[in-house]
Task: structure prediction
Amino acid sequence: MKRLFALALLVVALPALAVPTTLKIGSLAPRESPWGKILRTWAKAVKEKTGGEVELEIFWNATQGDEPAQMSKMKTGQLDGAIVSAVGLGIVDPNVNVLQVPGLYAGWAQLDKVRDALKPRFDKSFQDAGFVLVGWGDIGLDRLMSKGVALKTPADLKTSRPWVWREDPVLPPFFQAVGVVPVPSSVPEAVTELSGGHCNVMSVSALAAEQLQWASHLDHLNLMVMAPNIGGMVLSSASLKKLKPEHAAVVTDTGKLASKALTDSIRNEDATALERLKKRMEVNDPTPAERAEWQKIFADTQGRLTRGTFPPALMKEIQDLLK
Result:
């Protein structure tokens, strides 16, 4: 009995083992993708810098649902964060999608100029909604890819079946300007739509097309840049407030570094992926006359978006920045 009592006292005296706080993060990216590599490095840094007191559990391959579902789960506390594209960011602030207007940005330099100018208002809109926009993370430069048909001019789209992300507000008006009805679905459903022949055109970055296994279903590539495909790292303000202040700082500070790496690395990876696709697809580099035809559609698209999707003052501000 004395021994049992002494053992009980010893157990009580032992310090309780700390249970790490786990932040659940959603993502559409595959674990072994370029995005996955950087995000796993982020998770390792958080664990090391907090002495194991905070861990990140990342859910890959849309296992927490498409991006609208992930953002909804953040609002209810089922997820603490998400790495999303403009579609997910647009759930919080629809004006983020202005960074992906077709034909408005010729490349990364123009995007950076506009995004840097708009960053303070996006930071505030996310903060007001209960989120922290930790940083951006680009996905690539979207280009038109197709199956069985070369897309040299907008007229070549008229008999096509283009796929669009169901919640994407900027691409459907582009196809409407051409006069074609797109096929809307979610990202997880896109492979089925392609393999089943339900769609045969996509506006997608080379890297995303490879990583999401869409490229194998496509055989034509138009080199014209449709738009930058952007994303970002979002965390729940409520989840961060549950952490020790120094640990919350670790999560956001390392998250900013990861976001910077996602921007720099992914841009290079996308350029490399484009070179790979150019070797296996039939490539069209539009002539000046063909580009002029596309520019007419871009102008029509931008007019439609100004009239119904984005504030005219915002569109004018961006156009002025790009002059």
User: Anything to note?
Assistant: The CA atoms of residues 119 and 177 lie 30 Å apart. Confidence is low (pLDDT under 50) at residues 1-16.
